[in-house]
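Z., the sequence and structure:
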Amino acid sequence: MIVFEFKVKAKPTQYAAIDEAIQTSQFVRNKCLRYWMDNEDASKYDLNKYCSVLAKEFSFASKLNSQARQASAERAWTAISRFYENCRKVETCHGASVQGKKGFPRFKKNCRSVEYKASGWKLSENRKAITFTDKKCIGRLKLKGTYDLNFYQLDQIKRVRLVRRADGYYAQFAVKVDVRIKTQPTGRAIGLDLRLEQSCRLTASQRTKNLRCLSTGSVKLKGSYREHKLAAICVLEQSLQGFLIKFSGQICLKLV
């Protein structure tokens, strides 16, 4: 998956509609989490079914696209499944277990995005604008960016996300692409031979010294530093003694 991000240009009323859609997705996510707390046996599919119940019960929730409500329920289930996975982890010698708190799911207070799936939006012919067709009245939004969506088919765009940030609003497109890196074989094979004298020896007669030599060398280096330090102290003591003898002789001459 590749994510392309565009800056969104719209009117103030459209920005207010985007904020309302974000708040609705946050409401659906929190209600699904509350439903799981009240029903411990609830599964992922039960949360998706509960979205239709919320749409019938609350009018503002029914205005949001049905797949956008399901995406919010999937967000809640992601937090729940992560909590279950942390609880199931057993302590091993590699330290894979989660110590302390297991990350119990919490209610969202400052949600900043709403996610649409395959429906609820429509791109323009030149792929420079997007129109949201649900009842939130977001309307047509201009896309400002350097990416070109004309290289990809509409079937490849799996998710569309509206994100609110401090510097404005953005639209993210999740595109399903198989990334393939073309490599050319060199036609050469490398063989490794581990020895006692050399830590690594390649077939191209390249050798790497063993790290044991480094440990012995570091010990010698520390010893030489200690010897130089003692020698410097001896020289300093001799110079001080000579200075004191000379200074005391001058004082005696002046007194005489």
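The chain has a mean pLDDT of 80. The longest strand covers residues 157-165.

Let me know what you think.
H.
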